[in-house]
Amino acid sequence: MNNIILSASILSADFARLGEELRAASATDLDWVHIDVMDGQFVPNISMGPFIVETCNRITDLPLDVHLMIQQPERHIQSFAKAGADWISVHYEGNPNIHRTLQEIRALGCHPGIVINPGTPAAVLESVLDMVDLVLVMSVNPGFSGQKFMPEMARKIAQVDSMLKQINSSAIIQVDGGITSETICAAYDAGARSFVAATAIFKHPQGIAAGIASLRNAVR
Ligand code: DX5
Ligand code: ZN
């Protein structure tokens, strides 16, 4: 067993068979379930809300890793916590109340995570880095699954890694977007330890278990 945390994004699951697909994923050595929340404002796409988190919570015992791509996330974190989120990650971009929001996520009993888009430099994280349990470095522009990994994000992951080491933080670096058995190593070598994948897991030609195994085997 290696030291990576694989988080399966249900954005690419077949929603007509969500229970079945999530149970199949949970029967493997998968670590977390990633839930992509999109509001059609912060990102062009609209996806799912607390109701789906609550549904996943009934289907699986795995930790639920909720990625909020929404405006004013502070208005909704309580509903996501109540629905069963274990990790709640919010974007730095466009969130003037980010410091308070991260405090509130922790006060609600969840692990707070901060997310930065490809166009946002690592330096903005400095004032909130000691408040978070996870830093999510986006390796695609958020909004859709099935996009291509941006290799230049490896440098940003390495920067975040050294910023975390400087403050003796054990926060996890997560990477999200275009993670496949070909791209996962570049992110791992840069310092990421949690990997989100939608297409590589739920659309793997040999099935969900094969998708999870091929990601894990790629970094063994
Ligand atoms: C993108 C989402 C990702 C997405 C990943 O906005 O945050 O979690 O589902 O999809 P893949 O793994 O297909 O790039
Ligand atoms: Zn995501």
TrEMBL record:
E.C. numbers: 5.1.3.1
Taxonomic superkingdom: Bacteria
Catalytic site: 36 (proton acceptor), 176 (proton donor)
GO BP term, example: pentose catabolic process
Cofactors required: Fe(2+); Co(2+); a divalent metal cation; Zn(2+)
Pathway field: Carbohydrate degradation
Gene3D superfamilies reported for this sequence: Aldolase class I
Matches recorded under CDD domains: RPE (cd00429)
Cofactor binding description: Binds 1 divalent metal cation per subunit.
Matches recorded under SUPFAM superfamilies: Ribulose-phoshate binding barrel
Residues engaged in binding a divalent metal cation: 34, 36, 67, 176
Gene Ontology cellular component annotations, sorted alphabetically: cytoplasm
GO molecular function, one term: metal ion binding
Ligand binding (substrate): 9, 67, 143-146, 176-178, 198-199
Keywords: Carbohydrate metabolism, Cobalt, Isomerase, Manganese, Metal-binding, Zinc
InterPro entries: Aldolase_TIM, Ribul_P_3_epim, Ribul_P_3_epim-like, RibuloseP-bd_barrel
Reactions it catalyzes: D-ribulose 5-phosphate = D-xylulose 5-phosphate
PANTHER family in the record: RIBULOSE-5-PHOSPHATE-3-EPIMERASE
Similarity-based family: Belongs to the ribulose-phosphate 3-epimerase family.
Function: Catalyzes the reversible epimerization of D-ribulose 5-phosphate to D-xylulose 5-phosphate.
Stated name of the protein: Ribulose-phosphate 3-epimerase
Species whose genome carries this gene: Ornatilinea apprima
Gene: rpe
